[in-house]
# Entry
Amino acid sequence: MREKKLWLIITFHTTTAAMAMESLCTEKGLPGRLIPVPREITAGCGMSWRAPVENKKELIEAAEQAGIATDGAYEIVI
# Structure
């Protein structure tokens, strides 16, 4: 069984925004990956960005600067 860890989960209203975040992070070399929204969180599109919590400020700022609308940012153990 995998060890549970504290992660940053960024949720989105739309799948388009989630995919835009993936493209942005790939382009800028930012950490993380798309995952289904964990059941502990409710979000509009069902997709979220999972990344190390240490990168929260950097990821939120990058999304804002790129005009990507986020639904929320959570720190949860998964």
